[in-house]
Structure formats: structure tokens, C-alpha cells
Amino acid sequence: MYILPRNRGEEALLKELLPVKKSSFINNVRNFFLEKGFVEVSTPSLSPYPGLDPNIEPIRIEYSGEILFLHTSPELSMKKILAKSNLTKIFQVCRVFRKEPFIDELHNIEFDLVEFYVKEEDYRTLIKIAMELLLFLSEIYGKRELKYKESKAIIDGSFEIVSLEELTKSILGKSIKDVVEEEFWKIFVTHIEPIIRQKKKPTFVIDWPHFSSIMSREKNDKKWLIERVELFLAGVEVMNGNTENVDPVKQLNRMLKEAKKRFGEDYEKYIDKEFIELIPNLGLTSGAAIGVDRLLMLFEGLENITSTFNI
Predict the structure, then answer these.
(1) Range(s) of the domain holding residue 22
(2) Is 25 part of a structural domain of the chain?
(3) Residue 115 covered by a domain
(4) Strands across the sheet with 39-40, in order?
């Protein structure tokens, strides 16, 4: 484990040392999961099947006359590994690619993430693992306060859980089930995100509407909501995760609907049929992705995601 000396300062020095800093940070994240008994896996970056989650657009390429997609996440491949094996906890650190509609301080077409899956646990376990990771990194780097622009988060073991269902009721006076998708995203940007940015503790946002993810399990008592969670630190989203949907009929229908919307004719060829067949083998499983670059930004006091690259 390599920790660079503090208080040496300036931007030029930080850029010079960044390759070592990022390598050390990724190794620390990797060591956390290995110490927790996770098995590290490796999956292809190219696939004939695109990521189909709403609001995430894959980058397509052509090779030898075949259309392939750079993975937006290793999700499908990792779940197939879990479904085919006796493994119960797996993770991967990898580069992912997304066709972003805009590039800014927090968004880029490529970035690094750590993705992990746990069998026999629901999304509430992801909150526990995320907090353990934050405390692990906080101890190594000697940082109890993370900042991004005007927002900050205190890492002391405490956290807050925010329900989107309850926030929507307080803002609009009605449940998410009575809100159309366009209206929800509008109030999320204009009303909910500003509330989250003011939180001083790690904030886990739960009770997401069903249209926000096609991979999540519905809540038993409120079918219009899904068991999804996002973690915000100093107003920055650094993790999203969920209890996995393992109903093959529901999953196929969700993916077909999204593929038809994106590709029109011949949309069925973009569905990974093996994945659909295998997901019942997962049973109760939860999984999450954490943006390594965004987390590194917060621990190093950077304000632009491209500052985490080594060039």
C-alpha cells in the first residue's frame, strides 16, 4: 500500500504524481473487496448486446461487418458468471464507455468503475458495503471530510437514507405512481438534487420509480417502486445499485421494450437470450457499480473527472 506525502501541493505536482495516486487508489479499492472475500473476475469490453438501461447510451462500433458495443457496464457478463458458478461474491475493476449527451466536470465518455455482486442479499446490504468501503478509504487517506465545490460529506460511520417516494409527496403532494416520467425527472433536477447537495452525511437515495431501471426488482408492497439505491457524497452520485430482477419473463419484456425504442426493426437480435435463461439461477442477488474516478476526485479534492486520467 503506497500513500503519497501530504501538503506538497500545487497543481503541477498533483498532475505529476497522479499516475501513482490513481494506481494506489485502485489497489486500495481492490484490496477492500479481496479482504471481504470477493473473487475478482474479468469480462469482455465488447459485446453484440448493448446495455439497455434507460438514460445510458452505448457506443457502437463495426468490426468485420459485425455491429458490436463497448460495454456501459460489465453487468450482463458478471451476472452470467454468477449464475453459472458456485461463487457468491464477485467484483471487477474496469473501464466502461458511454455515449454521453454532454461532457462536463462529472461526465465523460469513458471512466473507471468497480462493480460487485452479492448472492443471498438484497439492496440494503449494498449500503453496508459502501459505508465500509468509505471508512476503509477514509482511514487509509486520513480524510474525514470530502468536498466537491460548495458541498461536503463527513465520513464518520453515520449516513442518511432518503426516500424519493416521500420527497415526491412533499414536493408535489402525490405519490410517484401518479407522476409521469418526464415530470419526475424535471422535479428530480430542479428540487430533489438541490436537497441532496445540502446533505453533510453520505446519503443513500432509495424508492426509485420503475422506469428508472430495467434490471431492478420491484418492491413487494409498492409495485411502482424498485429496490434501487444511489449513494451521493458531497452532492456527487458515486454509486448505484439494486436488488436484481430474476424473473425471466419480466426481464425479457423490459429489454424488448427498450430495444424496440432504440433500434426499431430487428430489435430482438440485441437481446442476450442466454442472460435471460440464466437469471433465475441468481436467486436473491444484489449488485452495484461505484465510479472510481468520482470517488478519487473527492478524496483528492479534484473538480473535473478528466483530472483523474494520467495524461
Answers:
(1) 11-147+238-308
(2) yes
(3) yes
(4) 39-40, 89-97, 110-119, 285-291, 236-243, 228-233, 203-206, 160-163
CB 296 within 8 Å of CB 22: yes
SS3 assignment, position 216:
strand
Amino acid at 58: P
Residues 156 and 205: their CA atoms lie apart, in Å, by 19
Strands (E), the chain: 39-40, 46-47, 59-63, 66-70, 89-97, 110-119, 145-148, 151-154, 160-163, 203-206, 208-209, 225-226, 228-233, 236-243, 285-291
3-state secondary structure of 211: helix
Predicted TM-score of the model (pTM): 0.92
276 strand-pairing partners: none
pLDDT tens for each residue of 77-122: 999 999 999 999 999 999 999 998 778 899 899 999 999 999 999 9
Which SS3 state, helix, strand or coil, does residue 61 take? strand
Query: Is residue 169 a part of any domain in this protein?
Result: no
User: Which residues, 6+ apart, have CB-to-CB distance to 198 below 8 Å?
Assistant: 151, 235
Place of cell 432509495: 206
**What totals of helices (H) and strands (E) does the chain contain, helices first?**
9, 15
Region for residue 44 given its phi and psi (left: phi exceeds 0; alpha: psi -120 to 50; beta: otherwise): beta
Q: What is the dihedral of CA 30, 32, 33, 39, to 10 degrees?
A: 70
pLDDT above 90 coverage of the chain, percent: 83
Strand, helix or coil at 280?
Answer: helix
CATH classification at residue 125: 3.30.930.10
Residue linked to cell 474496469: 94
- Reading phi first (left if > 0) and then psi (alpha if -120 to 50, else beta), residue 264 is in left
In sequence order, the 6+-apart residues with CB closer than 8 A to the CB of 142 are: 6
Domains identified in the chain, total number = 1
Q: Is residue 135 part of a domain?
A: yes
